[in-house]
What we know:
The protein folds into two domains: 5-100, Beta-Lactamase (2-Layer Sandwich); 114-316, 3-Layer(aba) Sandwich (Rossmann fold), CATH 3.40.50.300. Helices cover 35% and strands 25% of the residues. The protein has helices at residues 5-14, 45-55, 58-67, 137-151, 186-193, 209-220, 234-243, 250-260, 289-296, 303-309, 318-327, 333-339, 343-347; strands spanning 16-22, 28-31, 34-37, 69-76, 80-89, 92-100, 125-130, 155-160, 173-178, 200-203, 224-229, 261-271, 278-286. The strands form two sheets. A seven-stranded mixed beta sheet has the order 9-8-10-11-7-12-13, with helices on both faces. β4 and β5 (80-89) form a beta hairpin. α5 packs parallel to α6 (209-220), α6 crosses α8 and α8 packs antiparallel against α9. It starts with a helix and ends in a 12-residue tail after the last helix.
Amino acid sequence: xxxxxxxxxxxxxxxxxxxxxxxxxxxxxxxxxxxxxxxxxxxxxxxxxxxxxxxxxxxxxxxxxxxxxxxxxxxxxxxxxxxxxxxxxxxxxxxxxxxxxxxxxxxxxxxxxxxxxxxxxxxxxxxxxxxxxxxxxxxxxxxxxxxxxxxxxxxxxxxxxxxxxxxxxxxxxxxxxxxxxxxxxxxxxxxxxxxxxxxxxxxxxxxxxxxxxxxxxxxxxxxxxxxxxxxxxxxxxxxxxxxxxxxxxxxxxxxxxxxxxxxxxxxxxxxxxxxxxxxxxxxxxxxxxxxxxxxxxxxxxxxxxxxxxxxxxxxxxxxxxxxxxxxxxxxxxxxxxxxxxxxxxxxxxxxxxxxxxxx
Length: 359
């Protein structure tokens, strides 16, 4: 048994989402969004490196020695899978492990809005799940893929770095490809995907111009494409895709995106106050004809207004989602205020808090 396995078991016992191991520090767990030190001796770099190398594939160790950072997945049978990132830092080596549940929660179990069950049933188009790092994008994306796997009879191809949630083929055939192990890059895998007869393509991260261009192309040529971006709102997601292209191509990509985009789900994760764990507040944009026209005309600044008027289509703004959690006692007024857009709307929910406390 690897020495790190004891820490992974502790993660499960404590309900932690992340494990931080850094030379010069005690091990640290992230529990319900907060970091907590483990009573353990300070880790020395050489000792920690030996522990890290026990669970890393040999070719990843070599790559780490050459580049100074790597990503990979580690599975502890009967316990859980972990997404690992190794990095070099001032005091030596460091590692962060994110726990990936072995059970994929459904849309209903996650308490996500019912409109999300429509997204995996689109015959083609682009569905984006966005948010900052650690906001639960992978969990939401896994629920969407799981819904398609249950309700469709198609070929699902996932491209990830590394593979996180493992979907067993049910009504669909599911193939997982890991960047660095099964393919050279996201863009290389996307180019190959078009010759592999996929109906649904899940891109773990749309990182660069080539990957984004290929994903949009796949979505516009008859495939349903799920992807993620590190953007914090629906409007900023559209702007991010357009802005990554050279100026002379932006008008064309607006037109292509306007036709291919189906939905954007932008989420923010909150620490729960009523129980252990966290909950997600979702901003949901559905590509209605009005939304497509705004994208085509470069008027994404009007998207927040459409979110308010498009509730009958399943749309909702981030502030409305936050308010719903707040009124149901799931999150604190302080957290709601810090993450909302309309501060005036949420100021009335604060009690015995000064302006200085919120800075």
